[in-house]
Amino acid sequence: MAADRIMAFLLDLSLVHLLSSGWITLLRDALLKSVSPDEFDNPFLLWARSSSHPAFSVLIWFAYFSGFLIFFSETPGMAIFDLKVRRISKRSARIGWRSGVVRTMGLVLEVLTLGFGFLPALISSSGRALHDCLSDTMVVRASLQDLPLLDEVSRI
Predict the structure, then answer these.
(1) b/e string for 53-75 if b means 16 or more Cβ within 10 A?
(2) First to last CA, the chain
(3) Which of 5, 20, 68, 102 could form a disulfide with 75 if both were Cys (CB 3.0 to 4.6 A apart)?
(4) What contacts 113, CB < 8 A, 6 or more positions away?
């Protein structure tokens, strides 16, 4: 399942890149049309003329992952690979907004630490990464009907 998780994450990153570059292009074009080119010190014009927009990309990245996890408990990449995120302590179909946001923030931490937070998922028997532990969640097959509770995770 680790390979499926990696492939789903890479697919989601590709989708986020397409979304963010598309939105940035639309926003940039709208700003360039609405602002006079004579306004050299206008911050919107300076932003629209720059080639890099990392803050906007991170915002879209965060909204993508947390939004899909909060409302659907899976991202499009996870859906393609038959994966779903479940809370460990509850037998709930959705993980909720708190777990979705904490999980996404943990994912950001893992990316910033060059992926070291993903190592526990590769070596632990439960297959949980740092962001799973922080948000009290785990990734399961979407077709799995019986969800494990916290005391059962150590046996998986």
Answers:
(1) beeebeebbbebbbebbbebbbb
(2) 13
(3) 68
(4) none
Cβ atoms 94, 70 nearer than 8 A:
yes
Model pLDDT, residue 154: 47
Token look-up 């990153």 returns: 13
pLDDT tens, residue by residue, 118-155: 888 888 888 888 899 899 898 988 886 455 554 454 43
The residues pairing with 138 across neighbouring beta strands, listed in sequence order, are 86
Distance from C-alpha of 66 to C-alpha of 104, rounded to nearest angstrom: 6
Look up residue 46 and give its amino acid: L
R_g over Cα of the chain: 19
> Which amino acid, residue 87?
R
Specify the pLDDT at position 27: 78
